[in-house]
Amino acid sequence: MANHMMMTGFPGFISQRLYRALAADDATTRFTFLIHPSQMEKASRLTSSDPRVTLLVGDITKLDLGVSSEDIKALSETVTHFFHLAAIYDLAVPKDLAYQVNVIGTENVNQFLKSLSSLDRYIYFSTAYVSGDRTGRVLENELDEGQGFKNYYEETKFEAEKRVVALEGVPTTIIRPGVVVGDSASGETIKFDGPYFMLRFLDKLPLGPVPYLGKGNEVLNIVPVDFIIRATVYLAKSEQAVGKALHLTDSSPYPAREIYRMFCRELLAKKPTYNFPKSIAQILLKFSTVRRYLELGPETIAYIYHPSVYDSTEATRILSEGGIHCPDLVDYVPNMVRFFREHRGDSTMKVALQ
């Protein structure tokens, strides 16, 4: 029987690329995308030339995902793989909204899966940052270690992953990416957030000496989206990945200070020359005028400058059998910066700061 893959979160950045990779991997694969009504026009435009794709209007925050009983019956006999990517990824998301989408939405997906009698694999997209405020080495087989959280994004993804782990009778693979950036070859991304806030900040400082924001000795685990896609396609079919949470992270990450220096050298052709205390920067960024001018939020500093190391031993072992590894950041920083430079004036790619 040909694979029938169902996916939430389309047409998001990762889900678009994942669809294309899965379609290229097997020409017989069928797809059903659960599409929020607000995204139907875009989803239709992106898939109109592919007769293997069915677009199904739905909403993960509703019981049965807002899908009719007739559609559920049809899907129950054919869906072999379910990819759950729909979530709110904003670090500054309000608690109620994050809980409704990330936690309740995942609970509804989990219940929906129980109706799929032909399901071979449930691939759930979590994040390495379910570790919250833990410091030191974080293992793939660890989840609830009594940690606190730096924001509601982390907290609700943690709560959602706990519910996926508790799901019985479903072959599950949990994907925990690090900080995902654009394509390592083209630099392409759809949003300048996360590490791109460093570039947005540096772009405001083209003249005079450039400061470091704190010591920045903590490692920042950046991974390009093409690595995430290649790894996910492989893991979705690997029996070794069943029942496991896997860190899709860089096994040799760079300190945040070094990444900042790379960006500065590539964007401004110079190196930072002095330290500006991180504690003072976080105080200044509480003022909205400062945040908007520098295009940098305090939650981003807390996210970037946090001393956690994400062990990826098991993911690396499984992926190495498929010849898949994370590219070295130093090799694709020029592509990231080039794409940023070419598109920095595009307001649709910037996350608005309040």
Automatic annotation (TrEMBL):
<feature type="domain" description="Thioester reductase (TE)">
    <location>
        <begin position="18"/>
        <end position="231"/>
    </location>
</feature>
<dbReference type="Pfam" id="PF07993">
    <property type="entry name" value="NAD_binding_4"/>
</dbReference>
<dbReference type="InterPro" id="IPR036291">
    <property type="entry name" value="NAD(P)-bd_dom_sf"/>
</dbReference>
<protein>
    <submittedName>
        <fullName>Male sterility protein</fullName>
    </submittedName>
</protein>
<dbReference type="InterPro" id="IPR050177">
    <property type="entry name" value="Lipid_A_modif_metabolic_enz"/>
</dbReference>
<dbReference type="InterPro" id="IPR013120">
    <property type="entry name" value="FAR_NAD-bd"/>
</dbReference>
